[in-house]
Amino acid sequence: MKKCYDLVIVGAGPAGLTAGIYAARARLDAVIVERFAPGGQIALSDWVENYPGFDEGISGMELTDRMRKQAEKMGIQFVTAEATGLEEYRDKKVLYAGSEWFEGRTIIIATGASPKQLGVEGEKEFMGKGVSYCATCDGPFYKGLEVAVVGGGDTAVQEAVFLTKFASKVYLIHRRDKLRAAPVLQERLFKNEKIEVIWDTVVERILGTNSVEALELKNVKRGDKWKLPVAGVFIFIGIRPNSAFVEDVIELDAGGFIITNENLETNIPGVYAAGDVRRKNLRQVVTACADGAIAVYQAQQFLERMCP
């Protein structure tokens, strides 16, 4: 007979790892199902300086690795598998993941989000050959070379500054005439002599032979186009939720984010969403962790109502 867990947690980013820690402390029979290594998007971030308790900051990799070790130490079980579907069967929920399936009385969806793509010619062709969505992963390959960063939010600005550790010059390409990033990040950007901001501009094509050699740019106000020679382009224009595997059963908003109430409940009783995958106003490590804790608390309440 297939085992039925008290709780199945889908995703091992900060929300999922925190949920695992709280589930273990609550003595719930729980499992975390993650398609890749634990950590989520923040594990790819060079530096986190707004997570409480680390006054000098901490790398995203180390922060999430500590969370993982804490969850493992408390006895949480990890399974590597990619979630492909979810269905409700009587008083159980069934998570399909590859050739496996996991039955749970409750489910927490904490699958996070992935970087958005520009959708321009050359992007897919040169992915991994000059097109990147992770400066921490690929920055060292561009020592002494010129690169471009596309975006204007916190991540784009932060990663542009990080890339100056390796690149000889970094162009920040933004479609508007002002940045959305936090003021403290903008101050660092404008003080860095290796960074040049190209305002009111979009990327129309990514050019090259075997790897990225240049970008075709267009000024959105003047309409003129030109080529910018670069060895690589880093794209940080937002995120899309990893929610496709539940789109037929869970209510999503127009952007694909899972709709929850203040208790993180979805439209299916006993199924909760936490972290970047759900519709919310602020997506930060600290809010993802809070979501994970709240979701486990609500799952506990649900289980107690099922089996008083």
Top keywords for this entry?
elongated
What would your notes on this structure say?
- α4 (154-163) packs parallel to α5.
- The strands form four sheets. Strands 1, 2, 3, 4, 5, 6 and 17 form a seven-stranded mixed β-sheet that branches. Strands 8-15-9-10-11 form a five-stranded parallel β-sheet, covered by helices on one side. Strands 12-13-14 form a three-stranded antiparallel β-sheet, with no helix packed on it.
- The protein has 308 residues and is of the alpha/beta class.
- The longest helix has 22 residues, at 285-306.
- It has helices at residues 14-25, 60-73, 135-138, 154-163, 183-191, 285-306, and strands spanning 4-10, 30-34, 77-80, 83-89, 92-97, 100-109, 113-115, 131-132, 146-150, 169-173, 195-198, 201-208, 212-219, 225-229, 232-235, 239-241, 271-273.
- The relative contact order is 0.18.
- It is elongated.
- The protein contains six helices and 17 strands.
Sequence-ordered SSE layout with sheet pairings:
Layout: E1 4-10, H1 14-25, E2 30-34, H2 60-73, E3 77-80, E4 83-89, E5 92-97, E6 100-109, E7 113-115, E8 131-132, H3 135-138, E9 146-150, H4 154-163, E10 169-173, H5 183-191, E11 195-198, E12 201-208, E13 212-219, E14 225-229, E15 232-235, E16 239-241, E17 271-273, H6 285-306
Parallel strand pairs: 1-2, 1-6, 2-3, 6-17, 8-15, 9-10, 9-15, 10-11
Antiparallel strand pairs: 4-5, 5-6, 7-16, 12-13, 13-14
Provide the low-confidence segments as ranges: none
Count of separate DSSP helical elements: 6
Portion in helices: 10-25%
Q: Averaged pLDDT, please?
A: 95
User: Structural class of the secondary structure composition?
Assistant: alpha/beta
Q: How would you sum up the global shape?
A: elongated
Beta-strand share of residues = 25-35%
| Span of the ends, CA to CA | 24 Å
| Largest sheet properties | 7 strands, mixed
**What's the assembly state of these chains?**
single chain
Tell me the Rg in angstroms.
21 Å
